[in-house]
Every structure is written in structure tokens, then in C-alpha cells.
Amino acid sequence: MEGEKVSESKAEQIIDSFFVIDRKLKKSSLLQGMFFTSNRLIIAYLNNQLSKPTIISTLFRYWEPYNHRYNVKKFEEIRTLSPDFILRENENNFSIPYSDIVQVDIGREVSAILLKILTSNQKYFFTLSSSKEFESKAEDAERLTNILKLVIPGKLVIE
Q1: Phi, psi values for residue 80, rounded to 5°
Q2: What would the mean pLDDT of 37-55 be, rounded to a whole number?
Q3: Would you say residue 69 has pLDDT above 90?
């Protein structure tokens, strides 16, 4: 019986992923990876700035070119891991099973794509951030809309 669970877990694959910023934390340098799998949505922290800041981390936070390159590299590394390993990578990483999602709203501001995820007992607010400088917000929004339609049909609201 346990062998079946292990093989079931190994079958779970990452379908797509995005850079996001948690709008509740209001720390633009605290990037997260949003990973869509066949069963759930995984939010993974790309840096450890939830912990107590040091002088070095504070300096690097404001040195944007270094910070962006580091985050892109970390994002690419995490994308190669299994979903279960991603969750174990950082104690703050978490997942939301698609069955728990009640509604997802996609909105736009002048230069941002906003994402609100509602579950029966929690609200999550994210801003999409591009991992590649050449990707446009329109391409990101279209890709995000398509993946959401695939994994949670009928629960997407586009504002």
C-alpha cells in the first residue's frame, strides 16, 4: 500500500511556474516561486529574507542586479526538484491542493498582474513578476490564465 503512495507522489510533476511577490508581506525583494503541479499549487520562498536581516542581506537586497540574478538561479534550481522536495526545501514553503481553491481572481494594475487565491479558510494575494526580462506582462497573464483554466476549471475570475 505504501509503495502505491510513493509512486503516486513521484508521478506528480510541475506543469508551469512563475515568479510572484506576496502582497501581504509588502517586501518586494521577497520573491517566491509559484509552482503548478498536477495536484496542487506550491509556493516556495527563493530567499531567506523572512529570517532576521543581516547587514549583508540588507545591502544585497538593495543591489537589484545581484538579487535578481540570484533569484532567477534559485528559481531555475527549484524547478528541477520534485514537488515534495520543494516543500521540504524551506520551512515556509507551502502548498494549496486544487480541491481547496474556491476562486482565483486575476486583476491588472498599470504595471502589474495581481492574483488573489481564495480557499475556504484563507486568502492569498500575489503580484506576478517576470523571471525573464523579455517576457511581457501580457504573455505572463495569458500563460497564467491558461494554466489556471487547466488546473481549476470554472474557478477563475478575470477582472
Answers
A1: -85, -10
A2: 70
A3: no
Q: Compare 159 and 85 and report the one with higher pLDDT.
A: 85
- To which residue does cell 470554472 refer? 154
Residue with cell 502582497: 23
> What pTM does this model have?
0.75
- Specify the fold of 11-158: PH-domain like (2.30.29)
Q: How many whole angstroms separate alpha carbon 5 and alpha carbon 40?
A: 16
Average pLDDT rounded to a whole number, residues 115-144: 78
Structural contact between residues 58 and 51, judged by C-beta atoms closer than 8 angstroms: no
For residue 53, give the DSSP letter. P
**Strands laid side by side in the 112-119 sheet:** 94-97, 40-45, 31-37, 14-22, 123-129, 112-119, 101-109, 156-158
Q: How many CB atoms lie within 10 A of CB 23?
A: 16
Query: For residue 5, what are the contacts with CB-CB under 8 A and spacing of at least 6?
Result: none
Map out the domains of the chain as residue ranges. Answer: 11-158
The gap between the terminal CA atoms of the chain, to the nearest Å, is: 45
